[in-house]
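Below: protein 1.
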Amino acid sequence: MISMSAPTSPKKGTSPPAAQQQQAQQHQQAEQEDMGLGGLVLTHMDLKLKFKASFSEAVSRFTIDVHEPFLTTTKLKASLTRYVDDLVDDEGLPVESTDGPPRRLVERVAQYWAAGYDWRAVEQDLNARLPQYTTLVKTPGTDYADAIPLHFVHKRSARPDAIPLLFLHGWPGSFLEVEHLLEPLTNPESADEPAFHVVAPSIPGYGFSPAPRKAGMGYRQTAAAFAALMRRLGYDRYVWQGGDAGSFIGHFLCLDFPDSVVAAHSNFWVVPPTPEDQERRARHETTEDEDFVMARLGRFADVGWSYGQIQQTKPLKLAAGLTDSPVGLAMWIYDACAAVCADPEALFAPERLITWTMMHWIPGPYAAFSLYKNGRKDGVISTKGVHAMPFATQPIAISQFPLDLGYRTPLDWAKRTGNVVSCARHDRGGHFAALDAPDLLVADVRAFFGDRERSGTQAFVPPPPPPVRTRGQSVGMREWHVR
């Protein structure tokens, strides 16, 4: 691992009266959200969900319970999968094309899903390991007036100095990405390591956060929904960690809720080259890292971004087919993951691939696809790739993994879009760092947020208890006596 650091920008303090006024305004906003809900309760019947659920302004414990007829139909559909034949060579032997997953992989997943996969066992395991909840929020101050039902994992640490951390997943992941991080972050083995209260919400339309009923749920609107969730849970200030779409959502949290976000850690900090960078490259004045990044971003735009191009332009066209074929959806997801991990067939073996696909199959994939279309309207992405985002002022640390898009992004480039104070560059891991390199990701999160001064997380250290005053003990220039 190579670590790079930059000086931390000084952060202005907030006077106690200003802080109290800010806190009062936040509480008032939260109360307005609750008043706007008017006691609204949305159930799985109201929302036509494939699982049992209830959403209200209360924070309620949630247990995954998918409807049995839906599971039966899913297995039937998997068993009826129609396959595409592989191409053959001059001798008639199969040749695996680079156009997509080979037939042998499709057959393996379809057959396992139809005959071997046990969703109820997966469901039981997730319910036992992940404390899950639901609530209903509104986002005053945005153009999205509808109530937003949310599902989330929430695990508090026993440590009094624990830091509230919002974990932000991306596509085609889900809240499942937090499963290997939850225990080490909330319950570190050493008292010298920072502890966290972890909140891991499902983006609306992913997992068990129901799909939005109205258009407009992009990265920025999702950020507003998650900010409302954190206020609902009593976290007026917090940090976030995220990758993929989660990093975009977190960036908007920094921009739109600067008084709430203290600091951030991203494992997907992509900064495209400027025209000046391209001109320097043409003159052979760029560094090896700059050349590497520009070449990788160029290849991604040319051949790797096809899934993102259709999801941001014709998401409903794509969803029409993949809402009806569980194996087709699994292969769409697998193909997007294959290029960004070292051994995709091992990392996304049938059991995990199907479970990840279920997080999109259960709600239907349209909302997750259309997040790209709405994200395009937010200005974050286009058919040409990822765009530069506005500057975020909070202290930010980034982690780079060799199979991810932003690997080897120079620190001076990273600082163009945020107050990036450190960068950890690793020699293993890919786009799904929480899955294939959780030890490295946890270490980076601890190192940054554990540096209270650099990250600003001294804000979460509880004040020391008042001194115990006993008879005859001198305190400063005064002496206390008990009569």
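Below: protein 2.
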Amino acid sequence: MSNLRNVLHLRPIRSMNYARFLTAVSAARKPSPIRILTELQQRSPPSLISLAGGAPNPNTFPFQSASIKVKGGEALVMDEPLMKRALQYSGSYGIPELLSWMKDLQKSLHNPPTAGYSSERGQMEMCVTTGSQEGLCKIFEMLVNSGDNVLLDAPTYSGTLAALQPLGCNLINVASDQHGMIPADLRKILERWDPADAQKPGSSVPRVLYTIPNGGNPTGASMTCERKQEVYELARKYDFLIIEDDPYYFLQFQKVSSSDLSLYSQRPWAPTFLSMDVDSRVLRTDSFSKILSSGLRIGFITGPKPLVERVVLHIQASTMHTSTFTQLMVSQLLHNWGPGGFLKNKLIYILDGFLSFSPVCFVDVAEWHPPMAGMFLWIKLKGIKDTQQLIMERALEKEVLLVPGGVFNINSSDPCPYVRAAFSLSTPQQIDEAFRRLADLIKDAM
């Protein structure tokens, strides 16, 4: 990653004025005195006697201990003292040992230049969220006002649209292809504005760009390093923030075959926006949902300290903190594995089904590009102008179900010839059979 920055010859071009990015609601948030005391108590020695927090007595809880069996490893044991901690309130940033582990991992994988910055310059900071979706919603609330222009991939994750559209912002689609967001299209859009106006009060220059750079949902597309560099340079020119939503980062399988999975953890990861963020303008969301457990609801935000602090203030006033129990369970697992074990034990079985997909029956009725990461295949159905009725009304008759592509567009009622297929849960045989049924469905509709 350090070589990447040397190639780019990037140097910070200005001190970031984070105040101008904040919504009025976010700027008005104040620290919770009780939450601050909880953070202090969390870092204090056991000899501390606290009469401050309104925490219930864990001796009254019905759960005493737990032993959790782990695939290919020793069981995770929560004895009575640890269980008392697991069932109690904890700090809003996250439990210290999990945060420390994750910070070390982020520095190892991304080598963010911001790790060595001062707090005022946007030093790298992290917090735990209840899944990355909570983190995204809180980031949007922090940054997006009604009437703001927000840039994002087209098509994009329906959950992002659900979070942004009620905010009353103007969503501006940036075209993408099999290699992700197209910088030339982004540049053309931005040329509507003068970069010199970006920091002027009341300017309509977009202040936020949202993207899923790896294994995009729904397209499965991954941005090339060159495209990320171009997008980052445009972010510097027009002074906007980049929200790097990367839940599929650990599900990259470009140039990986089913016979090569043992080498999977050895290959280099795709360079990230965080790895080239010399200006402290990237907010990154990561998730354990796709690689450890979706039900545990563990996600992370990494970004400039002044902005992560604002997110934490929102957490203090809403969820208070992510489940202490699940944080401790994940933390124990990660510490037992170590960074190398984590990379080796990631969830990669989803590749098996997709890599053996035989599309012979499908070639005449559909078009697609092999995804470079993630869990999805974005398929254009030939001769079908809109897949909504086909999927929602007729697919069940053929006993096959996909997601109609229109739900990933800003205007979901616009005709869309695409469908999204998820290949993470099915066997190779089920995948082949599903596409045979889909092919029959398309032929019947033509």
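The radius of gyration is 23 Å.
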